[in-house]
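Query form — protein BRCT domain-containing protein

QUESTION: What is the three-dimensional structure of this chain?
INPUT:
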Amino acid sequence: MRIVSNSLIFSGALLSIYKDFFILARITNAIALQSGSIQKNLNIRDVITELLKAHTESFTELMEFEPEKLLPTVQYIAVKGKEVFGDEGLGEIIDLTKELEAGMKQVQMLPTKEELNNDVLEAKKENFLNDSLICVVETVDLVDYYNKAMRGERPVNDIQNFKDGLDSFRVCLESIQNYKNVKLPRLEASRKLKAAGNYVEKISQTKSKEFKSFSKTISKIKEFTLSAKKIWTTRQPSGIYNTIIRIEELLGILSDHEKEPKPNLCAGFPGEDDVEKVTSDVKSEWFQKNIARGKSTSELEKALAPYEKIGRELKKLKASYQEFHDIFIYQKDLVHRMSGKISDIEKYGGLNNAIPLLDDSGKIFEQSWIENIIEDDYLKGFDMMLGVIYQRDEIQNFCAELIETFEFDAINTTLNHFEGLKLPTNLGDIKKEIQKIPDYSTLEAFLNTFSKFATSQTDLYRYSSQRGSWNDRVFDATLKKIKDSGVMKNLENLNINGFKIVEFRELVQFLEDLRESNLQESNQKTAYFPDKDNYPKFGKFFEAYANMKNSTLKIENFIKKMGTIPSQIVVDFKNSLALSTQFGRGMKVYRDIAYAYSLRDQLLKSMEYSEEVNKAIQENNNHQHVAQFWKSTDTDRKKAFEELIENLENLNSESEQFSSRDLQTLHAALIKAVGVKGIHGFEQGFQDISHQLEALALKSQLSDDFKEALENSKLLEDLDLDFAAQKGYLHAASLSIDDIKLQYDVMFGLNEGDGKTIRHAYLAVIGISIAIILLVLIAALVIFGLTEKGKTKYKNLYLFYFGKPADFEKRWRYSLFMDRQDGKNALIDAVREINAMNVAKEAKRGAYINVYSLYGNTALHMATKRGYPEIVEVLIKNGADRTLLNAQNKTPEQMIPDKYQETEKAGRYEQVEKIYQKYRNKKFRIRVPEVFPSSSFHIFIDDKLDLELVNAFMLQHKSIVTPTLIPTTTHFITKTDSDGACEVDSFETLFWILSGVIIVKDTWITDCLKDPKLINKDSQYLVEKVKFKGSVYSTVTQWTEAMAKSTMPYLHGVYMAVVTPECSNLIHLTAVVNNHGGVVCETFPDKEQFNVGARPYLHSNLGPFFLIHDGKIDLEVYRNDPDKMYTLFTEDEFIHFMLARVITVDTSPDLKQVSNEMED
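ANSWER: The structure tokens for BRCT domain-containing protein are given below.
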């Protein structure tokens, strides 16, 4: 979530215009919300999350947890911990217990003589040293000598020697990159012996006394345990740890601005205190003068009066959310640790048997820990083998470090430049020449780091060179010495006598968790509250959580009650939500432009971030678009911002002419602002940067450079600087002004004429006037009919009333291209965005009205299910078929919930139901689709056709022929055989057939070259048949029509998994399945996680899980699945299946969906 600060003082003509006109945006938005609340068609949670700029689903889930029930658990454990321990600690006891457990495991892991001797044999093998060294010694010496020569510590000739030996150095580099592929013996027995020896030495030197008196320690533990038993009550697990983990995931989503809801219900309230301003906005001089125009606003003031209180409550909610959010973010490690400890405390079930356990443990320890412990060098004689193991590990770690730190391709490029140098004889001149090599600093850093590698290589060589003299008896003696040590004998006694170390450690850990929960709650300061002693910080997290939840519920209830106060003045404001959204989104863009102008100094300051800050943004920012933009050169970045600022300053100067600031001015100001493009793709990049720097601040103290960058970026973080991507919002806002004005004119009674109509009784004059008007009108209609636009209009009118189905089908062939915007169906998208104006625009334009979404619902199904009465009415009145079935075999009207009266959308569903009843016996004509002109064709030609013909055709129609396949391709011209069939020989060709692209015969080219007008007759050249591996299918035009009309998705309810190890066509397979409503599984589908027995809607004879295999894997268990949930295809079989387009509809009245997440 992001809270916008309005504390900065801004200036400029742009800001003056914005401040006045945002009054209109806020009031219109308030009317829309008030109207929705009264009519019971407002989702209040959506309003709250949009005002908080929080991801709705995540915030709703956050609200489902019950922090008020978790807080008592925290407080109970803290109090009981205090009563048991007071201020005493268990830290040393915990450490000793862990040491004891580790030692008892060491005894069991000691190697045998045979295992140790095998290690010696492995180490003595001839290839052991070369494989371990990675690079040959001579090459390592070359680098070492080069470094020393560059420092003046060795002869200059060593620089030339390094240059001459670059081939061997390149081999070394390759070996380093491939170090993981070298299979080296682990020498596991030697490692175990080393660990045991180190343990014995550690205990004998530092813990001997503590273990000798460990029986007394057990008695102390018994005292704590007896106290705990008296006061501790076993509690039901609260699930606190899992809750915290999920809260962290949800807050991660809520903190990501890319997951914020788009401005919709609250587009007119982008600022922190915008809601609170509504009441004063209505009384403002600007609104009174330009909108009410002297009329009384008392009724509107009364209707919108609750917003003042809503604004105050919203401030409290934002503050409580911010506190909750910040405590979690700043104290995340503590919250994690403590919730985990409380979870462990609750799960511990050994307290009832603890006293007998401790009594037995005390007796066993006294019987077992009887041997004297002597300090000694227990690994003496094993030094060489230890040296080999250590240095070999060092080399392996060093290789990993080099790979992670350096780009080896860049190093090789630099070496190529180095190899081409002609070196002088003087060291100073040599250095000057070498420094001229591009990116030499990287190579220099690599070679300097290499010295550490050289040391390890040298030591490993020294240790390994003595392998021949290694004596098995020496190693056996080392093993015997460790086994016979007092430490190991005592530990072995504990194992033999049955000391229950695991249960003992769990009891001690339980007591320590109980003690620490008390300390964390009572006695320490925190980074977040450094000035408060005794602050109950973990409990404070749950208190803040509960406060935030209560604030949310309080404001939601207030908005709900607001809807019980009738107000006709706001209900009569037509299309209030659509107008508010359209206008508010545009004003938000204008606001960003105005703020960017006022913050131009800060924008330029961002170009002065230090090199270290810039590097951090380039390499570590999680948002690719920010990192990429920042990776451009300083000059390019500065140029982009300077151009932006120049555009903003020009716009501000030009906007000074709009001093009247009436609605006409606003229209002109918005259109003028469209010309400012901003920074393409950067969007809210400064917010991404400030979040990145804030995260760094949590880990360590920031330098002054980073602090300045963070402070500056926070001032800019609310700006979305990609203005060009949002220019549509500015256009839409300008278009909505007249409609908004009309509604306010109706509200204030300003649309009635002020003068009186004077009536004349001279019938002759009236008759003549009417006749003249009719003649003029007829003449105008005739003249208009002679124009291209007129002909189109009259033809569309004719088709609307008298057109035959075939006339419509000719135009619907192109619906896939006509109805698509940004790769999506515009009508479905408008319904999904709840944009009634866009739905009406698409319907009136003639978009195919019965289009299905990928989830198997028509637009009417979707609008009905979601309870959008305005959209339902628009669709029905534009001919939407009310009898079509969706993928659940339901008509649109059946999507109204049975018990909708119990839902939050009761008012909206009631309106939808009334609309269906109103038009039950009335039919509406479908709108006539627009003509798809040949100038909009994007034709791609198969490269197998005659090149000369293709070139001639491209020359003739160069504006509509594309040399490559593009997403907007409309036609694909392919070669056909004598039967008119095209042959599919690749997944790519199949993809274009199934994508809805119109497949045309190559004869179209020949005929068009003779008569260019035939370019408009593509329907005469359609390919109808397709041949694949001997089979012919007459389904090409069926696929084209299905995609053009977006009929029920062919693969709805299909889940595909590719089980072939290497699938070269995976990208095309995925695209085909996704385009036709199926789902490509990332993991193998487990039928238990789905609804067993469900079937794909159009393939009720097949199982929903399509497994694509290569015929080499044994999948019989799935082929014979008793529930018939799996359908097996090879890639070729799947192509046959798609081309056949055989449909078996599941006609069951009560269909089971394959997954409960399939609903649109």
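ADDITIONAL NOTE: The first helix runs from residue 13 to 38.
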